[in-house]
Amino acid sequence: MMIILFFPAVTVDVQVSKFYSDPQIAGNGPAGIALSSFLSGMHPFYDVRHPHENVTVHERLLANQDFSLIDQDLSWSSDLTELSQSGRPLSVLYDMLVRPGADMGSESPGCLQWEMHREREVDHMVIGETKIGGSWNEYDPAMLTVSFSDWMDMPGLTMEQWLCGRPMVKRLPSVAIATYLKKYVEKLRLRKKFHQHFVVSSIRKVGDVWVTEGKRSTDGRMFRIRSKQVVVACGKTSPRKLELPNEELCSSNIVYDVRTLKERLDSTKKTVIDEECYDTPSTSTSAPVIVVGDGVSSVDCVRHCLERDIPVVHVIRRTLRELRNVMLSRLSPAHYSEYTNIYRMMIGRHAHKNYQRLLDSNISSISKIHVEITTGTREIIEMPYSTLAVCIGRESHFSSVFDSAHTFLDYRSQQDPTLFAVGAYAGDHFVRFLVGGCLRVAQHINCNMNNNNVEKGVKLV
């Protein structure tokens, strides 16, 4: 006997939030915030009361003092010797105007004055995977910034103005920067432009319109944004991995940032105390933490281990000669003592009972109980470990959302003039320089808006 079962047809109703915005900015960290400020009408003007010491800069800007920098042709900046070698002359010019002589320790007032022109607002939409502030929400709250506090200033509202006075210390904890970015958006009334927890899965060109798709991480609802112009303002948020065969299988023993390592070390210490395991060997004789990398994050990991009396093996791919030219070598001991102390250990100037370095080396194999380290002489060292901290930089996953590759010159795609990039995605890794890049993109977008009658507005369907 044949039994036939009939099932009712099921229709899955996928709710999709539909938006139209021009331009659309992907990334709600400092770059996305700074660009939103410029597009909302925050315009910088040359302040003739505080002339810049560079005669050419002063004369060029003085001749156009009635126009904001957004409305000026600043291409002459690429001809200045001080700027031409940077590859991004406008970014350096902006930094020179906001912080004249900063690298020489000068605290001279800036050469710009700010005016909010709401009538010049370019309607736009900013989306981000996190809360407003981008990756600053993910850092260890107690971590001190590498940049000085006034190097973190957003357009028109400085850190000093927000704090109602100059900070007592040059470097502030990351939680202060994250708070400042959120308050900046509120103070300048930009909040309505920002949409949080939007995870982008694809950006593609359909005709003359960009279509950005993804879903919200809070409720899983899909979204689709149509726009004539797109700006990629996302930072490099995804940690680089070793790309070893067993890396995923050993993920419970691997961390990729300082915050996670601190949490792991603190939780391990707490567990030992709570269980009163008095027979547990002391940390000074247990398997070491192995730290891979030679940048600021790796040094933070080393420092946190040593502060807890935990032995650490520092695996560095550079040779001693190469190591003498990294960014750490140029940090001032007066302001960065925690970094310069570790750096001296890295180059062999200082020693510590719990610190061991392996130069010209890399991790070649990993299991859950030990790693294999290959040295420059092809020697293979097998070593047990408790935690592996991989701090070899970060990368952006955003390149994979496009259906074709793009290269950027002057912050604009060479393949499509309606696609832009700012911030770390464009190679500006420090806030003091990325704001100038945002200024340049604001110039591009304002020019495009003047040349094209583009429908404005954002709507939710």
What does this structure look like?
The protein has about 450 residues and is of the alpha/beta class. The protein has two domains: about 15-40 and about 115-235 and about 395-450, FAD/NAD(P)-binding domain (3-Layer(bba) Sandwich); about 240-390, 3-Layer(bba) Sandwich (FAD/NAD(P)-binding domain), CATH 3.50.50. The protein has helices at about 30-40, 55-60, 80-85, 90-100, 160-165, 175-185, 260-275, 295-305, 320-325, 335-345, 430-450; strands at about 15-20, 25, 40-45, 110-115, 125, 195, 200-205, 210-215, 220-225, 230, 240, 255, 290, 310-315, 355-360, 360-365, 370-375, 380-385, 385-390, 395, 410, 410-415, 420. The strands form seven sheets. It has a five-stranded parallel β-sheet with strand order 6-5-2-10-23, covered by helices on one side. A five-stranded parallel β-sheet has the order 12-19-13-14-15. It has a four-stranded mixed β-sheet with strand order 1-9-8-7, with no helix packed on it. A hairpin with a 3-residue loop joins strand 16 and strand 17. The model is unreliable at about 1-15, about 270-285 and about 455-460 (pLDDT under 50).
Draw up the topology in text.
Layout: E1 16-20, E2 24-26, H1 30-39, E3 42-46, H2 55-62, H3 81-84, H4 89-98, E4 112-116, E5 125-127, H5 159-163, H6 174-187, E6 194-195, E7 198-206, E8 209-216, E9 222-227, E10 230-232, E11 238-239, E12 254-255, H7 258-275, E13 289-292, H8 296-307, E14 312-315, H9 320-323, H10 337-346, E15 355-358, E16 361-366, E17 370-375, E18 380-384, E19 387-390, E20 394-395, E21 408-409, E22 412-413, E23 419-421, H11 431-451
Parallel strand pairs: 1-9, 2-5, 2-10, 5-6, 10-23, 12-19, 13-14, 13-19, 14-15
Antiparallel strand pairs: 3-4, 7-8, 8-9, 11-20, 16-17, 17-18, 21-22
